[in-house]
Amino acid sequence: MPGGRQSSCRAFVAAGLQPPMEGPIWHTSAVKNLPYELFVGLRYTRARKKVSGGNRFISFISFTSMLGIALGVAALIVVLSVMNGFQKELRARILGVASHVQISGLGGELADWQAVVAEARADAAVVGTAPYVNAQGLLTTGPAVRGSVVRGVLPEEEAKVADIGSHMLAGRLDALREGEFGIVLGAELARAVGVRLGDRVTLIAPQGLVTPAGVLPRLKQFRVVGVFEVGMFEYDSGLALIHMADAQKLYSMADRVSGVRLKLTDLFKSREVARALTARLQSAQRGEFFVSDWTRSHANFFRAVQIEKNVMFIILTLIVAVAAFNIVSTLVMAVTDKRADIAILRTLGASPGGIMRIFIVQGALIGVIGTLIGAAGGILLAVNVGTVVPAIESLFGIQFLAKDVYYISELPSDLQRGDVLVIAGMSLVLSLLATLYPSWRASRVNPAEALRYE
């Protein structure tokens, strides 16, 4: 068989095989010009009823290897998509209440905050600024007492840097007005204190009033004008918003604030913008201050998610690796079973490289089909994970992510093309590597030894 390409059909017949395609198409020039290694490799991959029990067993092992690769690839795609979803959802929820960049005064007070706001707005990357007062307090109504973070805000400015206004369950954020002593509570905090819209709640500040009778607690009664739920238990159960002017009066801060919060056009440029603002404010001598960004203030959350994502990728890659290396046993058995066929092909002029390519085709086909099936199934499940998980929870009466335990109570998914390509490429490479040794062993078969007892 000179060249191994013009006599593909004869090679099949000589090896005791039937051509994979019968009829007029087999005799077309396009088919006859295709490598015979491809046809033989495809034929070895599947078993028919006419073949021996050994071939059927080899085909079964090929099927299980293919299934293992498909399950591993699908699991990797789904898990990484869910981890991406957690990262994206966590970032969105945190930054919906927090800020991209925060400029705070040392000691908790920033005196010349108007000048700081002007400096920040001069940066083209800053799209929103909002001064704030941050303090601690006790909320009480009747026997219920609950500690919380109290944030004094300007409602019209706060809407430029946070999304609390779009997560209101009752009332409105702009119902906070100077001198009216209104308060907006997180849903879990309002439930713990036992108040609803329009109810009164007493806020006790830790700073006391020194009187001749001793130190008395500083307290003020507020009216609930809104209830929000951003979906993060930390904020829903521990954050109360009041007007900034009311907070300045209650905490004796005069016209000072705790700091200024900024929103950027691109949240991933927060560290760069923070460094630039620090240099500009220092050169302008705006007093003592500290500039931080969300990558620092909430780094533990995002670092934990990224570490978990990397670890899960490594662990689940082992599943694909085990399935891929099952191809080794499949091809070793196939080489042993096909020694006579290999010898006949060699006597007809097939080169060792051609024999090697036959079994590479067989093993690579298992990897390709398994990867394609796994990728399709993984993508389908990752896209519909928001439907599948609630159905499983409803069917078995369980809850995977309880609100009072986890920051995110729903299973999110963010399918990224890069992850799919990396997983598919990794699976194909492992499958191809698994074919090399058995294929090399097949190319070393001695025709005389193989045909001695035939």
Describe this structure in words.
With 454 residues, the chain is an alpha+beta fold. It has two domains: 2-88 and 302-450, no CATH class; 99-296, no CATH class. It has helices at residues 8-14, 29-32, 36-45, 53-97, 113-121, 155-161, 187-193, 233-236, 244-250, 270-283, 294-297, 299-337, 339-347, 352-383, 385-396, 417-443, 447-450; strands at residues 101-105, 126-141, 144-153, 168-171, 182-186, 200-211, 214-228, 239-243, 259-264, 289-293. Strands 2-3-8-5-7-6 form a six-stranded mixed beta barrel, surrounded by four helices. Strand 2 and strand 3 form a beta hairpin. Helix 12 packs antiparallel against helix 14 (352-383). The two termini are 22 Å apart. Residues 1-31 and 47-54 have low confidence and may be disordered.
Write the layout of secondary structure elements.
Elements: H1 8-14, H2 29-32, H3 36-45, H4 53-97, E1 101-105, H5 113-121, E2 126-141, E3 144-153, H6 155-161, E4 168-171, E5 182-186, H7 187-193, E6 200-211, E7 214-228, H8 233-236, E8 239-243, H9 244-250, E9 259-264, H10 270-283, E10 289-293, H11 294-297, H12 299-337, H13 339-347, H14 352-383, H15 385-396, H16 417-443, H17 447-450
Parallel strand pairs: 3-8, 5-7
Antiparallel strand pairs: 1-9, 1-10, 2-3, 2-6, 2-9, 4-7, 5-8, 6-7
Helix pairs in contact: 1-3, 3-14, 4-12, 4-14, 4-16, 12-14, 12-16, 14-16
